[in-house]
Amino acid sequence: MRLKKLFLICTTVSIAFSSCNKDDDDGGGFTFEERDRGEQAVEDEERLVEFLSTHFYNYEDFQNPSEGFDYRITFDTIAGENSDRISILDSEELIEKTVNRDDVDYTLYILKIREGQGERPTFADSTLVAYTGQLINETVFNDNIVSPVWFDLPGYTTLNTNGQPARAGSVLPGFSESLTEFKSSTGFTVNADNTISWNNDYGIGAIFSPSGLAYFSSPPQGSGIPPYAPLIFKVNLYRVVKADHDNDGVPSWMEDIDGDGDLYNDNTDEDNFPNHSDADDDGDGTPTREEIVINADGSVELIDSNNNGTPDYLDPDTFK
C-alpha cells in the first residue's frame, strides 16, 4: 500500500436504524414490524455470552510469540483437544462496557489483548484501523486486516446532492465505543517499496457488539449481514488523527459543549449544522477561527473578551 493512499483514503461505515413499513395497495407488498430494542438486547446478550463462553482465542501465541508471529487473533471452539482452554468470557483481557442508546443499556464486550502505546482516540477522532468483521457463526462479511482503513468515528453534517443538510461518515456505535479503549502505534517505517511497517506496539483486540450497537434491523444491502445480528470485529489500531471536521481551529472533541459524547446535540446558533460541522459556531458572521487563538504548539485559547463566561466563538454578542 502506498503511503500517499494510506493517509488520504477515508472509508466510513454508515449506520442505518430506520424501520421498514410497506403496504402495497394491491396487497402484494409486505409489512415489517421492527422488534423491541430491549427484548432484542436480551437475546443478543445471550448469544454473545454463549459464543464467549464456548470459544477461546490464541492467547498462548500472544503470551509467547514465536518468530514470525503475525499478531492476528484467531478463535476456536473449546472442545476435544482444546477442552482445557480458557474461554474468552473468562479471559483477564475481556472488559465490559455499558452503552446506552435509544434508552436501552447494552453490554459491549471488548477483548483488549494489547492496549497499544501510542495515542488514544477520543469519540470525535479519525482512526486508521485494520479489521475483520464476522458474524457469531464465524462467517466473515468484511476483511481489511491486511489493508487498514480510515474511520471517521463521529461523522459530520454536510450538504447532500439536493443541497440539504445530511449526516455523512461515522461508524457503528459499538465499533466507535470500543476503539476508544485502545491506543495507536508509536510510529512506522516506510520500506523501500513504499509500503509501511508499523511499530509492533499498536492496539490489538476484538469487539463483540449487540445488534443494537450495530445495524439492528437494517444492515446494508448485499453485505451478508442479517437483521438483528450481533457482530464481531478483530481490530488493529495503527494511527489516530485529532479531527477538526469544520477546520475552524477548535478540535472536534472540544465542540462537545455539554460533555455527553454526542457532537450532534451541540448547536450554539441553532442552525442546521452542529458546532463540529459549523465554521461559525455562534452565527455572528465572524468565523470561529477568527475568535480564538491558535498557539505555535497547536494549543487553542478560547478568548472571552467581555468576561461573561462564554468564549467569543460561542457568544453571538461578541464579534468583529
UniProtKB/TrEMBL annotation:
Task: Tell me the enzyme class.
Answer: isomerase
- Family matches, as InterPro entries: PPIase_dom_sf, PPIase_FKBP_dom
Composition-biased stretches (Acidic residues) = 255-272
EC number of the protein = 5.2.1.8
Domain PPIase FKBP-type: from-to ranges: 124-241
Question: Catalytic activity, per the record?
Answer: [protein]-peptidylproline (omega=180) = [protein]-peptidylproline (omega=0)
Protein origin, superkingdom: Bacteria
Q: Does the keyword Isomerase apply?
A: yes
Name this protein carries in UniProt: peptidylprolyl isomerase
The region called Disordered is annotated at: 249-320
